[in-house]
């Protein structure tokens, strides 16, 4: 459940989304706040201007947090974002150890706005060569 303080910060993420759109990028924006609500960092989508399909604001902030914050501090942060993180960003947010995500527009609502924008899943085959893969990976984790 979101609170009025969340709404203030969420409006900041929405403003960043508008700025991204004005610069020719998809209109998505995010900011990362500490436990007291202080904005630690903010990002806009730059997938077009950077020519980088991974330049989502949520991913860029999660990478920043993993690089700049210790684990305990990262766990106390909240990521405010104009749209629910995609699967790629959600995975990176989890790996970065961020504490919470608050979003304005759900992924389902986004598809209602721009239908047909999803991509088909890529077929995957495996597991295969388990013992060979284990021999390469296991020593790292011991």
From TrEMBL:
Q: Which domain of life is it from?
A: Bacteria
> PROSITE patterns recorded for this chain?
CYT_DCMP_DEAMINASES_2
Give GO MF terms, alphabetically. Answer: catalytic activity
Matches recorded under CDD domains = nucleoside_deaminase
The record's listing under Pfam families reads: dCMP_cyt_deam_1 (PF00383)
Q: Where is the CMP/dCMP-type deaminase domain?
A: 4-121
Classification via SUPFAM superfamilies: Cytidine deaminase-like
* PANTHER family, sorted: CYTOSINE DEAMINASE FAMILY MEMBER, TRNA(ADENINE(34)) DEAMINASE, CHLOROPLASTIC
- Protein name as annotated: Nucleoside deaminase
């Amino acid at each position: 459940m979101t609170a009025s303080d969340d709404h203030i910060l969420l409006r900041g993420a929405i403003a960043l989304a508008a700025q991204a759109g004005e610069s020719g990028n998809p209109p998505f924006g995010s900011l990362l706040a500490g436990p007291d609500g202080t904005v630690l960092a903010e990002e806009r989508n730059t997938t077009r201007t950077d020519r980088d399909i991974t330049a989502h604001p949520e991913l860029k902030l999660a990478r920043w947090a993993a690089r700049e914050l210790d684990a305990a501090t990262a766990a106390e942060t909240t990521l405010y974002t104009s749209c629910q993180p995609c699967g790629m960003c959600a995975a990176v947010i989890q790996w970065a150890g961020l504490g919470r995500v608050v979003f304005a527009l759900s992924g389902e609502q986004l598809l209602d706005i721009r239908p047909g924008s999803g991509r088909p899943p890529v077929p995957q085959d495996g597991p295969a060569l388990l013992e060979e893969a284990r021999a390469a990976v296991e020593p790292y984790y011991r």
